[in-house]
């Protein structure tokens, strides 16, 4: 058993980055790092990193611009081979992204704008057929996390404050939040049909209650209603941006149905699928509200990059929870991804220690015992911890982007949001 000490070396960055008062330049310091391939392996997947030596010690270094964000009381663990562990000390987030930043709960701050949003969605879904109405409104019961609409609403106000110091939100910006939630829900309905899922958010899926054919039609109807609401905004740029989301969702689903034979290409394939199926909607919705509230292209890019990085991190943690949460917490059966033949982040990381997984990935865990054996390999590896660490990297990149906006309660809430993503349990 060999231990690794994670140290957080903080220093003041200086006047060239006034929005950041604390940086982390070097982590993962060990007297002896017996397997250099671990550093090389992480370098290949985590941009902005480099291996270095200092006074006879190995270190994993990060530039100031790519410093890490760690939630409070979070632990990391590394393992380089079966039976050989690297144990990390507990990390603490040291310093805030802005000297005047307050701990703003994003969900509490966004509740005012979120009020009546599901009633407004149901108005967009007005139909005369009772059965279709019941199906379309089934998931809009107000019991979900509302993660996407809250994020989009906060981004709208943050961009408005950055541009003209006005916290008021335009009706068109609120419509984007509604449309984003409708597109997301339509994709869930279709995903449940494709995956043959029986439960979603702790209750039976639409396809289980009404059947697959009607479920497909319900998803199509929600998507068409979202398209009508999008056209009503009357901005061709916004229509183009959110139409890209629908294209990405379809392409992402096709990517998920396939797998790369080349082991070195699998993780890139996984991240591309993750962006298209999850992050594209968040990124493009954030970009859309920024365009409606601010003419500066730099702000549009900030909003897009924030949404992209938060979206990828969100899905990485979702994939981690499939191995760490019980069915009651998740509202759906765990190990669901393995049973669907999907190799997510934790599995791909585990392959480095258990190459036997590669064969199972290519046959999509279809043989008897594959799912159970793959589960054991992931649990015995550092796959979950590596995937969590990568999610932290993406979260920090999101924080670095949103910190470029002028201070506001909404901006500070968006800075706090990654901690919610990283520490969620369902």
TrEMBL record:
Cofactor section: Mg(2+)
Job description of the protein: Heterotetrameric enzyme that catalyzes the condensation of farnesyl diphosphate (FPP), which acts as a primer, and isopentenyl diphosphate (IPP) to produce prenyl diphosphates of varying chain lengths and participates in the determination of the side chain of ubiquinone. Supplies nona and decaprenyl diphosphate, the precursors for the side chain of the isoprenoid quinones ubiquinone-9 (Q9)and ubiquinone-10 (Q10) respectively. The enzyme adds isopentenyl diphosphate molecules sequentially to farnesyl diphosphate with trans stereochemistry.
Catalytic function, reaction form: 7 isopentenyl diphosphate + (2E,6E)-farnesyl diphosphate = all-trans-decaprenyl diphosphate + 7 diphosphate; 6 isopentenyl diphosphate + (2E,6E)-farnesyl diphosphate = all-trans-nonaprenyl diphosphate + 6 diphosphate
InterPro entries: Isoprenoid_synthase_dom_sf, Polyprenyl_synt, Polyprenyl_synt_CS
Similarity section: Belongs to the FPP/GGPP synthase family.
EC number(s) recorded for this UniProt protein: 2.5.1.91
GO CC terms in record: heterotetrameric polyprenyl diphosphate synthase complex
Binding partners and assembly: Heterotetramer composed of 2 PDSS1/DPS1 and 2 PDSS2/DLP1 subunits.
Class of enzymatic activity (EC top level): transferase
Gene Ontology BP terms: isoprenoid biosynthetic process; ubiquinone biosynthetic process
The keyword Metal-binding is assigned to this record: yes
Pathway assignment: Cofactor biosynthesis; ubiquinone biosynthesis
Entry keyword annotation includes GTP-binding: no
UniProt-annotated location(s): Mitochondrion
GO molecular function ontology, one term from the record: all-trans-decaprenyl-diphosphate synthase activity
Family matches, as Pfam families: polyprenyl_synt (PF00348)
Keywords: Isoprene biosynthesis, Lipid metabolism, Magnesium, Metal-binding, Mitochondrion, Transferase
UniProt protein name: All trans-polyprenyl-diphosphate synthase PDSS1
């Amino acid at each position: 058993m060999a231990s690794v000490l994670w140290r957080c070396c903080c220093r003041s960055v200086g006047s060239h980055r006034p929005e950041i008062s604390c940086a982390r330049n070097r982590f993962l310091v060990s007297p002896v790092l017996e397997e250099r391939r671990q550093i090389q392996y992480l370098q290949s997947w985590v941009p902005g990193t480099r291996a270095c030596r200092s006074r006879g010690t190995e270190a994993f270094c990060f530039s100031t611009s790519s410093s890490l964000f760690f939630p409070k009381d979070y632990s990391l663990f590394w393992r380089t081979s079966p039976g050989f562990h690297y144990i990390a000390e507990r990390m603490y987030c040291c310093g805030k992204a802005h000297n005047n930043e307050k701990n703003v709960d994003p969900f509490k701050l966004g509740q005012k704008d979120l009020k009546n949003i599901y009633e407004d969605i149901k108005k967009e879904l007005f139909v005369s057929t009772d059965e279709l109405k019941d199906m379309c409104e089934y998931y809009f019961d107000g019991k979900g996390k509302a993660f996407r609409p809250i994020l989009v609403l906060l981004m709208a106000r943050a961009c408005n404050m950055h541009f003209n110091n006005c916290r008021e939100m335009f009706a068109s910006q609120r419509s984007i939040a509604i449309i984003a939630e409708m597109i997301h829900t339509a994709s869930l309905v279709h995903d449940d049909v494709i995956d043959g899922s029986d439960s979603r958010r702790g209750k039976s899926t639409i396809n289980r209650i009404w059947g697959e054919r009607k479920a497909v039609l319900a998803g199509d109807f929600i998507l068409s209603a979202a398209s009508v609401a999008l056209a009503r905004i009357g901005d061709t740029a916004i229509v183009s941006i959110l139409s890209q989301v629908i294209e990405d969702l379809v392409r992402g689903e096709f990517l998920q149905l396939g797998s790369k034979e080349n082991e070195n290409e699998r993780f890139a394939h996984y991240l591309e699928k993750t962006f298209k199926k999850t992050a594209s909607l968040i990124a493009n919705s954030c970009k859309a509200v920024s365009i409606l509230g601010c003419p500066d292209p730099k702000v549009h890019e900030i909003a897009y990059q924030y949404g992209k990085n938060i979206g990828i991190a969100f899905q990485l943690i979702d994939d981690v929870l499939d191995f760490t949460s019980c069915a009651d917490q998740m509202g759906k059966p765990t190990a669901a991804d393995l049973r669907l033949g999907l190799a997510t982040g934790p599995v791909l990381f585990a392959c480095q220690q258990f190459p036997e997984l590669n064969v199972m990935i290519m046959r999509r865990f279809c043989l008897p015992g594959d799912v159970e054996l793959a589960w054991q390999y992931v649990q015995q590896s550092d796959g979950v911890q590596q995937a969590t660490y990568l999610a932290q990297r993406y979260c920090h990149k999101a924080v670095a982007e949103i910190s470029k906006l002028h201070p506001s309660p909404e901006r500070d809430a968006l800075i706090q949001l990654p901690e919610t993503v990283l520490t969620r349990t369902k």
